Amino acid sequence: MRADYILKRVVLFFIVVWVAATLNFVGPRLTGRDPVKTRLMKQAAVGGYVQQGMEQMAKEYDQKFGLDKPLITQYTTYLRDMSRLDFGPSIANYPRSVNDIMSGAIVWSAVLLSVTTVLAFAIGTFLGAVMAWPQSPRFLRYFLPPLLTLSAIPYYLLGLVLLYLLAFRANLFPALGGYTPGTLPDLSGRFLLDAAGHAILPGLSIILAAIGFWALGMRAMMVTIQGEDSMIFAEAKGLKDRTLFLRYAVRNALLPQATALALALGEILSGAVLVEVVFAYPGIGSVLYTAIKDFDYFLIQGIVFTVVVSIAFATLVVDLVYPLIDPRITYRRA
Fold first, then answer.
1. Cβ atoms within 10 A of the Cβ of 283, count?
2. 3-class DSSP string for the chain
3. pLDDT at 35
4. 174, 197 in Cβ contact below 8 A?
5. Which long-range contacts (C-beta less than 8 Å, at least 24 apart) are formed by 165-168?
6. Among 75, 177, 184, 301, which is least packed, fewest CB within 10 Å?
7. In the beta sheet, which residues pair with residue 89?
8. 279 phi/psi in degrees, rounded to 5
């Protein structure tokens, strides 16, 4: 692999992160809303009275959060803090820091979404491969309509259906939350089983909705691969059906699937946000939803920046690993 290409891709990675970070900084400020006053007014509404000295309190908090400084000064401070992954204090949860809030929520989202993404990828890719293979059992063709239907249903909508059927009607699984209320999170077997039970419904909604996407993508690639010269030549050599299926068809069709999987894993922090909101799951999606409602500048910036970096980094890794996955791809000069 050419060193100049690697350097170019790394430079492009930092440019993408910088542009996204800049938009992340500018976006909330274009609304014209004051996050400090929004929070103080919300507290006053909850208390049922208008606090005296609201303006003075807002000025004090603006000074504490650095929101009273010129915009260019806020921007340079923001870039410096982002480069150190220091996202500052949360306006709505002061004095808790954004890093502290995110660290507690990312674990829940990472475990749920990584497990469900890998399971959906494995099951969907297998189904797509066998459905497209001519020697597969004929009954597999009946899987296509359900997979088409599942691929068209959003995560959150399927989650609502499962919530109604399996939690409210059948009462088979816990409806909301990540664990039983009143339980202290720890690494004991009892708590882990409780958390796994609460993760079944949100995980099932993600898996069922994603299986159709992976299966249809793999099926389309398998159909395309079967008409290529390499497959025709392998069949002419008289190779076994299993060898044709695994080493020629599946192996070549997996490249786009592997690319999509890497990008999906990079989007774990942003994926299925509404699913977490529907099930009141204590992940990063629920935190982002609450931060947007409370107009918490710093918490929104921290979550969005982390998501952007993860997606950009996943794209960079996929681009650099391509030649290792498929030897036909090279970045050397001809």
1. 28
2. CCHHHHHHHHHHHHHHHHHHHHHHHHHHHCCCCCHHHHHHHHHHHHHCCCCCCHHHHHHHHHHHHCCCCCHHHHHHHHHHHHHCCCCCECCCCCCCEHHHHHHHHHHHHHHHHHHHHHHHHHHHHHHHHHHHCCCCCHHHHHHHHHHHHHHHCCHHHHHHHHHHHHHHHCCCCCCCCCCCCCCCCCCCHHHHHHHHHHHHHHHHHHHHHHHHHHHHHHHHHHHHHCCCHHHHHHHHCCCCHHHHHHHHHHHHHHHHHHHHHHHHHHCCCCCCHHHHHHCCCCCHHHHHHHHHHHCCHHHHHHHHHHHHHHHHHHHHHHHHHHHHHCCCCCCCCC
3. 73
4. yes
5. 166/201, 167/201
6. 184
7. 97
8. -95, 5
pLDDT per residue as tens digits for the range 36-90: 777 777 766 665 555 556 677 777 777 777 777 888 888 888 888 888 888 888 8
Q: Are 91 and 36 in contact (CB under 8 A)?
A: yes
In this prediction, residue 43 carries a pLDDT of: 67
Query: Tell me, what's the pLDDT at 329?
Result: 62
Residue carrying the six token digits 């296509």 = 144
pLDDT at site 250: 80
pTM: 0.78
Residue in 166, 196, 167, 194 with CA at minimum distance from that of residue 181:
194
Closest CA to 125 of 256, 217, 224, 204: 217
Residue showing tokens 């959906």: 120
Quick: pLDDT tens for 262-298: 767 666 655 567 788 888 888 888 888 888 888 888 8
State both tokens at 150: 């599942």
> Sign of the CA dihedral 260, 262, 263, 267?
positive
Rg over CA atoms, the chain: 25
Rounded distance between C-alpha atoms, residue 309 and residue 139, angstroms: 44
The residues facing 97 across adjacent strands are 89
| Domains in the chain with CATH codes | 111-293 (1.10.3720.10)
